[in-house]
Amino acid sequence: MAKMRLIPYQVEEIKDTAKEVPQGVQMIQAPDVWEQADEGGGNVIAIIDTGCDTNHPDLDGQVIDGKNFTNDGDETEYGDGNGHGTHVAGTAAAVGKEEGIAGVAPNAKLLIVKVLDDNGSGDYQWIIDGINYAADWKGPNGEKVRAISMSLGGPEDVPELYEAVKQAIDSGIPVVCAAGNEGDDRHDTDETAFPGAYNEVVQVGAVNYDREIAPFSNTNDEIDIVAPGVDILSTYKDQKYARLSGTSMSAPHVSGALALVTSIAETQFGRKLTEAELYAQLVRRTVPLGYPKSAEGNGLVALNILNRFEQLFQTFNTFFK
Fold it and tell me: What's the whole-model pTM score?
């Protein structure tokens, strides 16, 4: 059986310091809803990847637990010798102190599930075990994972992988997957990677800061949503920062967005929402970009769009009274 691998990505730049709310986080309007969402507080995002640099100052206190399923060290060693997992983790939930960068949901917690080794490669069984671990995980105060983020893919549709994904979703956890970077810049040809291509997951394509579909972004009839994925600044191994490009970078924007949406919607409804309800709440907060559905799905994440509609209606009603 083929190995599961990191979806290929491009390292644009590595740097020692950074101090900003990254452009991608701003583009999906996360800061506009931070107060309403308590910055995602109370939610745990599982990052299923190459591990995480838990010593990074911007991830200080963000990692609630973790486990290593690879052959790199024992199960308690889920550090990141690759950099990819740390980058994904930072986009989802970097803490956003005065020095450093903010992720989409700075008050959420991270469950680090290391299923790819430092070369970015892993057995399908490691990923399957990692998904099951994340779905079953309980925190010290009864916390449960509220979103799973996977920026990895493989060519093979393995039934056991599909079963693990379905079980996680059936237990109420949205599973967010990168679409893949085999795109040919044509929207009428399909490129698929698994688990992204499964209907049940939230498959995320990439756009640049001009809201254009990235040429590398896979297109297929299961794309659900797009998010920033070009020149994305986030945390990196060895306490550094990096700008990376790929649908790998788009997926954690959506995982973090789900933490914010969960906080807002469950407060409004006064109860825990199902996976289907959370997906519906996420999709309500998107804007179409004018591309075929095979490229953009429901469109670009725009977390503050409902509040803007509300303000517009209030103005409209006042004007016509």
Answer: 0.94
